Structures are given as C-alpha cells and as structure tokens.
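During the no-cost extension, the postdoctoral fellow (Dr. R.K.) reprocessed legacy sequence entries with the updated structure-token encoder. One reprocessed record is reproduced below for audit purposes.
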Amino acid sequence: MTGVIDYTSPGPFTGLDGVDPVALEPAAADPVGICRPVRYLFIQPTDARPLGLPAPRFDSNQIRRVDELVRLLLALDPAPLTTAREPDRRVVGTCRHFATLGCALLRRNGITARPRAGFATYFEPGKAVDHWITEYLDGDRWVRVDVEHLGKDLPGRLHDLRPEDFLTGGEAWSAYRRGEVDGSRFGVVGTENWGPAEISGNALRDLAALNKIEPLPWDEWGRMTDAYAGKTGEDYDVLLDEVATVCAEDDPVSVRALYQHEDLRVPESLIR
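Re-encoded structure tokens follow.
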C-alpha cells in the first residue's frame, strides 16, 4: 500500500477509457472553463419529473461510474460534452454526478482534482444543504468549484468557494463538535433527513472521496445506518473526530491509513 494518492489519475469511478476522445475535448484550458459545460449535461430528478421522461431514464441516478454516464449522454446526444443539452437530453443525476464528471474531465487534462462531499450554505438562508463540489489544485491551494451551479445567480462565489460557502463533511463535524454550528440545520433539502447524523455520514463520504472512491449520496456502510438511527455512541463520535482531523490535515499517508478502518472503508459491493 503506497502512501501517495494521485489525484491526477482516475479512480474506479472517474475513468473515461473507451469514450470517444473527440467528445471529451475541452472548450477551454483553464480548470473552471473545463468544468463549465458540465452544468448543462445532467438534470436533477426533481427538475426532470415535469418533463415526462420515461421511468428508465431515472435509473441513471444510481450510476457511480463516469464513463457509463458519459455513454448515456452521448446516446441521447452525440455532440461533444462542450455542447449544452436541452433538459430532456440530459442524464438524470445528482450533485455528486456533476462533481465527479468535472473531476474526471480535469484529471483527463492533467489537472490535480478531486470531488468533496459536504454542505453548501448558499441554497437556503440559515441552512447547510447536503452537496458535492469539485476542487482542483492551483499551486499549493485547493480551489473549490460548484460544478453544478457555475454561472447561476447564487450568493456563493461558485468558481472559488469561500470557507463559509461550503464545508466538507469533516469540517462540518468538527464545527458541530466544537459547538460552533447547530447540527439540526444540516441536511438534505426536501426531506426529513436533518441533523448531526447527516453530518457524520458526509464525513465518511468525504474520507472515501479523498481516497478516490466517490459513493452515491445515499450509500451507507460500516456503522452509518446505526448512526442515522441514533444507535451509535461516544466511541463512534470519537472515531469521526479522527476522520475530521485527518481529512483537514490532508496528509495522504494518514488519509489512506485511516480509510483501512473496518467502519470507514467502502465495501467492494458498492465499488461497481
């Protein structure tokens, strides 16, 4: 097991092998320019339902692999990915799909990048909403980009998110444990899924993403299901404290070593 995590190369879900390279040619060389067209490639299920799409079109929401998603995109419209699709020609997905495709395109162009799981504060005042973004390395600084919403009229600085705009799962967990945030204000919009357990879930998803495994937003493993049901205790909270600390320190050796913990590692059944 090497300690180096290479964020310039694909992980199990972010490869683009076998996809027509012509379709993948970027319209711009800068990272934000590479990501910008992705906004017009996916559509959220709530936005897709009024279009009357056939039921099988919604199955793409469950796909983890970027190459499969791109093949679906090209089947609907063979134009390069830099071409904006009409809503009915977009693939149904989530913020995680936008973030992973943005990451895959950046890596394909030699840019160090990775998706992050956490919470955005610019969707609803006073709330931190479950969300995925992409970040790329600019010198020694990670720049966070909301690939899904680039160009939209939202309060956040979407091409270079500020610390107050987006918190990773680990950052949110640490803030919650320090008493700096109200855990009940963190959750999934349009659902009853709010509270500290939602923070703990995204802390684990973000650790997985740092290890180049980007789960679906509802994937559960280890003790996550018990955490959502309020059946875990202080020992699990302490483990999450360690997750938050290691992710914040961002040392690849520590990030990879902690991920080997049986309660933290994504099972092979979810890596497909």
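Residues 234-249 form the longest helix (16 residues). Residues 13-111 form one domain. The remaining legacy entries will be reprocessed before the final report is submitted.
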